[in-house]
Amino acid sequence: MTDTTTATRTVRRLSVPLGMPYAEAIRRFEDLLPAIDLDRFTALENWDDVVRLAGRTAPLGLMRFWALDVPSLMVGGRAVWDSTEYLVGNHVIAERMYRYDPVATMYAPLRFLIHADPSGEAVCVFEQPSTQFDSLGRAEISAVGRELDRKVATLLTALGATPPADLAG
């Protein structure tokens, strides 16, 4: 048995206006990030095949693992925000961190929220990947976190948004 450990970390949460109505942003986000086909991946027999399929499946290097229409859970509540939460990532990239520390999967896949602001325009909110993975204290994992920063910047650009300078790393 190991002793309990504590890690305090600083994470940078970024909110990026997407410059389009919420419904259009959701459509474009989902067009850019294909949903993962778990059956296809789990049917593969070796890692090389997984790597090849991930490369073909994720043109921006990222896939959608999960989506939740948040208001559908708020039935009868007072919430009026259009919002969808996503888990986005690439398990081939995640493996490059997981091999050093299984705790990396606490932050991979990445979590995104797209919501409508009061005028109906979409905002994309996420925690900067490098600030999450830096907390694990391994240079190899931190390097992948910075790579994910750049992938998120590419995604934002593909959505027509201006990526925050924090992602340029």
Task: Write a concise keyword list for the protein shown above.
169 residues, 6 helices, 5 strands, TT1751-like_sf, DUF302 domain-containing protein
Overview in brief:
The protein has 169 residues and is of the alpha+beta class. The protein is built from six helices and five strands. β4 (110-116) and β5 form a beta hairpin.
Can you walk through the features of this model?
- With 169 residues, this protein is an alpha+beta fold.
- It contains 6 helices and 5 strands.
- The protein has helices at 22-32, 38-42, 47-57, 91-98, 129-133, 139-158, and strands at 13-21, 63-69, 83-89, 110-116, 121-127.
- Strands 1-5-4-3-2 form a 5-stranded antiparallel sheet.
- The chain starts with 12 loop residues before the first strand and ends in an 11-residue tail after the last helix.
Fold topology:
Layout: E1 13-21, H1 22-32, H2 38-42, H3 47-57, E2 63-69, E3 83-89, H4 91-98, E4 110-116, E5 121-127, H5 129-133, H6 139-158
Antiparallel strand pairs: 1-5, 2-3, 3-4, 4-5
Total strands: the figure is 5
Helical amount among residues, as a percent range? Answer: 25-40%
The residue ranges in which pLDDT falls below 50 over 5 or more consecutive positions are none
- The main sheet orders its strands as 1-5-4-3-2
Mean pLDDT: 94
Structural class: alpha+beta
Summed up, the helix count is 6
Termini separation comes to 38 Å
The description of the largest β-sheet is: 5 strands, antiparallel
* CA radius of gyration: 17 Å
Sum up the overall morphology in one term.
globular
Percent strand equals 15-25%
